[in-house]
Amino acid sequence: MLQAYELPSIASLIETRSLRTFFQPIVSVRMKRVAGVEALLRGVHPDTGEFISPKDLFDAAIIQEKSHVLDRAAMKLSLTEYARRGLTDQLLFVNVDLDTMQADGRTDELLRHIGALNIAPGSIVIELVENQCEDQDRLHNFVARVREHGVLLAVDDIGAGHSNLERISLIRPDILKIDRSLCSKLGSDRCTEEVFSALVNLGRRIGSLVVAEGIETRAQAMVALERGADLLQGYLILKPQPSESIDLQQAQQATSQLAGHFRQHMTQAINHSKIERRMHNILLDTVLCELAQAEQNAFAGTVAQTVRSHPDIECAYILDQRGQQVTDTIFNAHEAPPTSLMFRPADVGADHSLKEYYHNLLDQEATRYVTAPYVSLASGHMCRTLSAMFRDGTNEKMFVLCVDVKAA
To answer: What is the residue range of 336's domain?
Structure first.
């Protein structure tokens, strides 16, 4: 990071044409193609000839009160280089300072410049950082103005800092870009992965594509794709390169390789899922075989015999046809029932009729059902509940066996 006394003159950098546009590809692994490029600004230091980072440039612009000037120059340069390099088959992602765009007719100037370069407005994606522009009326006017010309909108840095999810409902973006601070933990932190999945699901529900930013390892890429990301961006595909030497063929090759790795990854995941389902069915068959010979007053002992000897079972219980619990919650011998006021095993007579593993079993007219992983109120641990319909030994009444197994 440059010190204040080392900061170059923004006006001088513009005057001497010492600003450079770098491009970084954004790719679709599923479609095996480069979908777009993000324009990133660099400066050339007048004394050392080294590149100056965007942060140092814009920090200098703030100190020198040249933010509007720098933003205008960066936008014009990005569009010009995009057109000059013939990249118009790909989307161009450009960062926009909303305060700047509202000043002095800058929105109209942007649209005119797009037209003058014969760039299709639908090829441009304007990235809006979530913490910009507190004036919602100005934001709404800007969004409406560019959108009526066909320009696409993205909300950048989702998941970084104090993310303002309300901004998403105001902008209704075409694209959500999940910040590298989240993506860097994919493959190593389950909680982060669930947050990532929630943001992907949000995108799907509001009609936005999702870009995973800052992807640097294959493991991160595999998890991002498995969790539903539409597009990837990061050093794993290609580092930002100067506009005059950007190598999209290299990015294309990296994308094709990732597609092959993802195919293998999903094949392994599918095989693992098949094995898991098979094990679940074997487990249920084991208990149900014993229960089919037992009467209701013997259910608890029958279930306990299996549960307390099976390491993957956390606990089990039986409901009647109305969803009322008819046995105690029987824990594995290695599991101590919790004593928390929040997490405690249900007692005989507890009503489970609103639980997914009960009402979905009946609604789908299935004989077996497996939930997605969730936090068990019986133990406080992540689990899946396996449920299955069965008749007692007298063959007169229907019951539901519920088995909670540990979820990874």
So the answer is: 285-406
